[in-house]
Amino acid sequence: xxxxxxxxxxxxxxxxxxxxxxxxxxxxxxxxxxxxxxxxxxxxxxxxxxxxxxxxxxxxxxxxxxxxxxxxxxxxxxxxxxxxxxxxxxxxxxxxxxxxxxxxxxxxxxxxxxxxxxxxxxxxxxxxxxxxxxxxxxxxxxxxxxxxxxxxxxxxxxxxxxxxxxxxxxxxxxxxxxxxxxxxxxxxxxxxxxxxxxxxxxxxxxxxxxxxxxxxxxxxxxxxxxxxxxxxxxxxxxxxxxxxxxxxxxxxxxxxxxxxxxxxxxxxxxxxxxxxxxxxxxxxxxxxxxxxxxxxxxxxxxxxxxxxxxxxxxxxxxxxxxxxxxxxxxxxxxxxxxxxxxxxxxxxxxxxxxxxxxxxxxxxxxxxxxxxxxxxxxxxxxxxxxxxxxxxxxxxxxxxxxxxxxxxxxxxxxxxxxxxxxxxxxxxxxxxxxxxxxxxxxxxxxxxxxxxxxxxxxxxxxxxxxxxxxxxxxxxxxxxxxxxxxxxxxxxxxx
Length: 495
Description:
CATH topology of the largest domain: Nucleotidyltransferase, domain 5
Oligomer: single chain
CATH class of the largest domain: Alpha Beta
Helix content: 25-40%
CATH superfamily of the largest domain: ATPase, nucleotide binding domain
Shape: globular
Number of helices: 20
């Protein structure tokens, strides 16, 4: 295809959503954000729900804006993983999807363990043991009217794609996060679903990333003002799209997709299903073009954003994010470090009860660390602890996979946090290349462009185009003396 294509890249996060116009040509790759909206789980009577109809409305608004401002050749959607909606036999949604941060899966992994051991589960799925994986959410619904009535389960980007096209399916990169997908055969593990007692018939047909799902239905075409636009199945797990958007030019790289969550790992050709990988709680998820994302879910900038929200609710005037980061840069290095992946940091709190800053202080107290008393000190604790988690898991991933790591690519929103990028380089002792911040939207747009005929035969070609068109910022490790802290000693304090 000689002419550039222009597509709508819908990139949904747990705290915000974006609809970007992505223009892709032989030497062109340009993103323009045309619609951004807030997102977040809605608490109702002790449960957390997604306002998925509101998300759908905002997606339509964004697609319409892309169409209004120029050509629209395709639409693709990526989002966070594991959460889903259930449809009845008439294709109607059987209730608002629950958030993975909802407490309904408390104790469910132990319940599943009675039918299938952790080792058996890992041997099939290769997944990190996370209490919110789709399989555990589904088990928590066994016996409920919704699951009893369900004809199909659709993960969130597939649900939104269904509303755009009327076509039912499950894109593989997101399906691989459910705990019901066989990472070797790349098919649903119906045997696993039966053993756990789940209705396997709700699992939809699988799609490859890059599949043209179908044109938008009439009501969508009427709203956005353009008929016949194809919806394309991209790497619908946002991390899969973000890894496509890593501008690497060599095989010995690690990546960190840093946002609400941090996804820390390697791109491999085949899964690592050893007992050592299982005990280290590493996950093997499908990537674009048959790759494997061998990674660890690490608590991300969610911890900092929740802390900032708490301080804002208290009306503290000096706790804007820029002010906090400026203060944290000159705060004592590695004075206090905590286990940033402690499950107690998973859920939101309130200003008066179980706030995020209070939980950070409690973790410090339990670990015998100095208790950070001020917002700046807590911010520095969070960033130092994140950098230590990145160090630990990249080194462990490399050891488990038998790979060297010479450089780390840090993409996503966290790439704009210069202090976090520098601390990560210091902690790991290798260069960190930061950016692009919108790696997921870029990966989304590139996969669409290839499906529409662009000359992008493989990931290497896509990444080369990103390098030609986007700048990255390089952070060199400074060494302990220059950085003001002993990273080995800090790591040993965490055990």
